[in-house]
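Morning run. Coffee first, then this:
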Amino acid sequence: MARPGSTASTTTSRLRPGPPILLGGTAPRALDRAGQLADGWVTSSRADLSRIRDGIATVRAAASAAGRDPDAIRIICRGVVRWGAPVTVPEGGGRLLLSGSFDDIRADTAWLAGQGVTEIFYDLNWDPLVGAPDADPLGATARASEILDGLAPGG
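And here it is:
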């Protein structure tokens, strides 16, 4: 703990042992902080995944500048899954990543890994049949199970 007039390093104040510290954020300063201090960075569910490489580069550069191994930083993508008909990006008309068939979504997941993503959290909360307040609980459970089964390794 710092006293007035003293300096403290947040890099040495991390509690160990303990669970990994993961930080989110999309502002450049937040990405720098994730690289400097955290065990990993979690993307926003609103992130433009087609540009994820830029955020990863910022996080890893900050880790390197802080004397940390940039490849040791976990990159967790909170990926909103839109299974079914592909969703089209309004600006340009291409398919939104993690939308479409299971094969499309698996291919996008592999592409994200190639960008530097180390883990993916398939976020089903934005599927109106799963996460909407008025979604039928049994129907939501069935749809979520179908999606997760379809995206399971070897699925």
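Confidence is low (pLDDT under 50) at residues 6-13. Good start to the day.
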